[in-house]
Each structure stands twice: as structure tokens, then as C-alpha cells.
């Protein structure tokens, strides 16, 4: 979609993939989606030409997804499951047995391009992948972690066709607000959806433990806050893996 952005495609354009055989996630992970089992799409949005103002963008996108899953149009929710967030860009399902599993994620890419009114603007491609239904192909693509589906949250099967329009409405509203006000206004709400909030966690890179302590959510810039024995640590790198212990 970045090629289309370079060619001048308008903000708000959406590309939907019915099937995904070589999807990309963080840290080089591969994502596979069979037709009808997952919602995988890219959304183009534009912002002022200041990359620093995009801090926290992937977090607000994840928040918009979780909030959209509460929409009445999607059907009756099951009472003992909930959707939630894991920093920086994972959508999780919290199950009745206390376990957590990944149901989707967000990937952000951006490039500078000429703005229609003159000057430059940031064209941002927001890639979202969500597991709607159980699929052996999805499970095979992420064998290193537990996988959930969003249908676990509802009394009926959740299809990509039902979910997409509800999700786009939430994303458009959230991105418009973020473009004007940044992440700080979303911080408190994001922390309420953080499934690791106030839990003892380890932050790892590979097999190496970088930090451990109590997860205190995120700050106004979207950095992860870990309260360690040495004080509060703010983590901004996206190349870490958060593990609840």
C-alpha cells in the first residue's frame, strides 16, 4: 500500500486481503490467513510532516479495535471473556480460565510524500490482522504463541464482513482525534484495557531479561512504564517481548 500512497492515493483508502500467505508481523513473524477466517486489511491515513507526533499511534489503533468490539452491532458478548491490549500492538482475548491468547495485531509503516496543499505530509499505512474464526492455517503460522479468535467473545460467529464496517467507523473517529491531540488524551483509557496493568512482568529481548517489575501502563508518549526496584523505567523500543510472570 505504500506504493499506492506514493502514487497519491487519498487518506481513508482501505485495501482488504481475502487471503494472506506472506503477511508480516513484528520481529519478522509470518502471518497466514485463510479466506473467511481472518480480517486482514491496510488503511491509509495522513498526518502533518512531524514523525515525533506519531508517538503512540499503534496503541490508539489497538484501542480503537478493542473499543469497536463492544459495539452492539456485533452481537451479544459472552460474559466471561474480554478483549484487551498488550503493549505495544497486540490484541488479546482474556479467557474465563484466566489465560490470554493473541487474536490480532497492528503494524505501522510510513513514508513522506508531497501534500496536496503544498509542502510535505506523512502517509501512514496501518496494517491490522484479526483472527475471526478458528483456522489450522492461522495456528500453523504462529506456532510459537497461543492463538485466539474474536468469535470467542460472542454468542455467534464473527465474520470479517460483519466486523470491518464497525471497525472502520471506530478507526476513523480515533485517528481524527489522534491527529489533532496526540496520544496523551488516550492514555488513561488505554491503561484500563491493558491486560498486564499492575501485574509483575518481565520485558525480554530474545532470552535476555532486560527489565522486570510492576507494569504501570504507558506514559503520555506511549512508552511502557515498569516500576522496578531501582525506580520507574520507560521503555520505548518496539523490539521487546512482554511476558507476564
Q: How would you summarize this macromolecular structure in one to three sentences?
A:
The chain is of the alpha+beta class. Helices cover 21% and strands 38% of the residues.
Structure write-up:
The N and C termini lie far apart (38 Å). A hairpin with a 5-residue loop joins strand 7 (100-114) and strand 8 (120-131). The mean pLDDT is 88. The protein has 245 residues and is an alpha+beta fold. It has five helices and 13 strands. Keywords: ATP-binding, Biotin, Ligase, Nucleotide-binding. It comes from Fluviibacter phosphoraccumulans. InterPro entries: aa-tRNA-synth_II/BPL/LPL, Biotin_CoA_COase_ligase, BPL_C, BPL_LPL_catalytic, Transcriptional_repressor_C.
Please write out the topology.
Elements: H1 2-6, E1 14-17, E2 20-24, E3 30-33, E4 38-48, H2 57-68, E5 82-86, E6 90-94, E7 100-114, E8 120-131, H3 136-141, H4 160-181, H5 187-192, E9 200-205, E10 208-218, E11 224-228, E12 231-235, E13 241-244
Antiparallel strand pairs: 1-4, 2-3, 4-8, 5-6, 6-7, 7-8, 9-10, 9-13, 10-11, 11-12
Helix pairs in contact: 2-4
Organism: Fluviibacter phosphoraccumulans
Catalytic activity: biotin + L-lysyl-[protein] + ATP = N(6)-biotinyl-L-lysyl-[protein] + AMP + diphosphate + H(+)
Protein name: biotin--[biotin carboxyl-carrier protein] ligase
Amino acid at each position: 500500500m505504500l506504493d499506492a500512497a506514493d502514487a497519491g492515493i487519498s487518506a481513508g483508502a482501505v485495501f482488504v486481503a481475502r487471503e494472506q500467505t506472506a503477511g508480516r508481523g513484528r520481529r519478522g513473524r509470518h502471518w497466514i490467513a485463510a479466506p473467511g477466517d481472518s480480517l486482514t486489511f491496510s488503511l491509509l491515513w495522513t498526518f502533518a510532516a512531524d514523525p515525533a507526533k506519531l508517538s503512540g499511534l499503534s496503541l490508539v489503533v489497538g484501542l480503537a479495535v478493542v473499543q469497536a468490539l463492544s459495539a452492539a452491532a456485533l452481537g451479544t458478548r459472552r460474559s466471561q471473556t474480554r478483549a484487551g491490549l498488550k503493549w505495544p500492538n497486540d490484541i488479546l482475548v482474556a479467557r474465563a480460565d484466566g489465560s490470554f491468547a493473541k487474536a490480532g495485531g497492528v503494524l505501522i509503516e510510513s513514508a513522506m510524500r508531497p501534500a496536496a496543499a503544498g509542502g510535505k505530509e506523512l502517509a501512514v499505512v496501518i496494517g491490522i490482522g484479526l483472527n475471526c474464526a478458528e483456522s489450522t492455517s492461522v495456528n500453523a503460522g504462529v506456532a510459537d504463541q497461543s492463538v485466539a479468535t474474536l468469535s470467542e467473545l460472542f454468542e455467534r460467529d464473527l465474520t470479517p464482513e460483519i466486523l470491518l464496517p464497525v471497525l472502520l467507523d471506530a478507526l476513523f473517529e480515533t485517528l481524527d482525534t489522534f491527529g489533532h491531540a496526540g496520544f496523551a488524551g488516550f492514555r488513561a483509557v488505554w491503561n484500563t484495557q491493558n491486560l498486564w496493568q499492575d501485574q509483575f512482568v518481565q520485558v525480554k529481548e530474545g532470552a535476555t531479561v532486560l527489565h522486570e517489575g510492576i507494569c504501570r501502563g504507558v506514559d503520555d508518549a506511549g512508552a511502557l512504564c515498569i516500576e522496578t526496584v531501582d525506580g520507574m523505567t520507560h521503555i520505548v523500543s518496539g523490539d521487546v517481548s512482554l511476558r507476564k510472570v
